[in-house]
Amino acid sequence: MSREIEQERIWAVQRFLTGEKPAAICASLGRSRAWLYKWVQRFRPEDPAWCQAQSRQPYGHSRRTSAEVEELVKLVRLRLYNTGLFCGAQTIQWELDDLGVRPLPSVRSINRILSRHGLTHRGTGRYVPKGKPYPKLPAGFPNQTHQADFVGPCYLQGPIRFYSLNVVDVHTGRCAVEPLPSYSAQHTIDGFWANWRRLGIPRNLQVDNAMVFYGSPSHPRGMGPLIRLCLHHQVEPWFIPPSEPWRNGVVEKFNDHYEQKLLARVTMTTEAELKQGSLDFEHKH
């Protein structure tokens, strides 16, 4: 079929060059004058492929991420992967934000860059235990064990930057979601107290090794505000081993659910809408 179309173009141009009127050529072929003149302009006697169709794909895209940012995404991803840290799109976006990259690419853009450069493969081989014993905390009744984690930084349209402190009761699956302006020590304990008022005070609290949870690296033997809050209310804090996020698997899975079902679907532009939307999502969950 394509060969017949190309032959039609050749005949039309030959008839035009021999002096036949354009109206007669277009009427016999059922084509427009614009079509005829396009192929007359493309005619090159020295190029036998002049009659072939050309791709309509644009040479560039005004919204495509710049080459410099793509290279930064690749470098950050490789550095995180080689050091055994999380290397997903969200983590890469946080790293770029800390580096001051502007405009900051979205998570979807970073995923497309990783896919385009073949950097989406996961680690190969079976998991090799690090030899760090860690007990599986009991969860036989409500509020026996909670798992908690931060999601963020996240942004509302505006933009308004916030962090979400998510807590999940391992036994019942009930959750508490508290948006906070930052993950400073004071905001963190305020967030835990607000969540515990709705969810209940647990016997065990399991968190990762984020600095705000355990204290300060400048005072490694001192107890941070969260540890003191837990001990004051007879809550035993537990810290999972470094680089082993699956130990906190319940809240990690909930974080994905929170991002997909709330942040990605509900449009919120103010702090009041964020607070109400978080409560609605908490009740629905």
Characterization of this structure:
The radius of gyration is 30 Å and the shape is elongated. The model has no long low-confidence stretch (mean pLDDT 83). It has a five-stranded mixed beta sheet, sandwiched between helices. Helix content is 45%, strand content 13%. The protein has helices spanning 2-17, 22-29, 33-42, 67-82, 89-99, 107-116, 185-199, 211-214, 225-232, 249-263, 271-284; strands at residues 145-156, 160-169, 175-180, 204-207, 236-239. The relative contact order is 0.08. It has 285 residues and is α/β, with parallel strands linked by helices. Helix 4 packs across helix 5 (89-99). A hairpin with a 5-residue loop joins strand 2 (160-169) and strand 3 (175-180). The longest helix is centred in the first third of the chain and has 16 residues, at 2-17. The chain is built from eleven helices and five strands, in the order ααααααβββαβααβαα.
Strand and helix layout:
Blueprint: H1 2-17, H2 22-29, H3 33-42, H4 67-82, H5 89-99, H6 107-116, E1 145-156, E2 160-169, E3 175-180, H7 185-199, E4 204-207, H8 211-214, H9 225-232, E5 236-239, H10 249-263, H11 271-284
Parallel strand pairs: 1-4, 4-5
Antiparallel strand pairs: 1-2, 2-3
Helix pairs in contact: 1-2, 4-5, 5-6
Strand order of the largest sheet: 3-2-1-4-5
Question: Averaged pLDDT, please?
Answer: 83
Task: Compute the number of helices.
Answer: 11
Strands, count: 5
Distance between the termini: 57 Å
Using only C-alpha atoms, the radius of gyration works out to 30 Å
Low-confidence stretches: none
Largest sheet: 5 strands, mixed
**Roughly what fraction of the amino acids lie in strands?**
5-15%
Measured as a percent range, the helix fraction is 40-55%
Strand/helix succession: HHHHHHEEEHEHHEHH
Q: What structural class do helix, strand and pairing data support?
A: alpha/beta
